[in-house]
Amino acid sequence: MAPYKTKAISLKTAPFAEADKLVTLFTREYGKIKAIAKGARRVPSRFGGRVETFTYGDYFIAKGRSLDIISQCQVIETFQRVREGPQTLPSGLYMIKLVSLGTVEGQRNPELFDLLLRSFLRLKAGDNGRKVAKDFEREFVMLEGIYREGIDPQYTLSEHVGEDLRSW
Fold this sequence. Notes:
Layout: E1 3-16, E2 20-27, E3 31-37, E4 56-62, E5 68-77, H1 80-84, H2 88-102, H3 110-125, H4 129-144, H5 153-161
Helix pairs in contact: 2-3, 2-4, 3-4, 4-5
């Protein structure tokens, strides 16, 4: 069980066991990974909001048999402004959904990680949410190698992730 340290963006959390959370992280070095945050659902928890969606942090993770375990987390940025904005939240969630559905667990994609982080920073800075999401879509299809001239990236992405994204 060799531990490793990585910077990651939390894509989503889900209840796990009695007091734990299953956290899906997107990292620059390891791609998308799932890890357990022990005791994260307890009221006095050392993780608290550190593993919540949108949080960008420095994670220390121990390799487990089936799932990795988050040992420590130091928050770099919470993107609170993105969470609270009526224009930025839907755009941020949309980008998270694209990364979640469009990537395979364990596959490195440093360019996509950098794109997601840059997009969140733009949202935090107050850029228009819809424009940031559209720019993200265009760059995402180019990174994935599925760009088609003259076709809205949303259609290509819908085909790529296997879900109709027009409602987003």
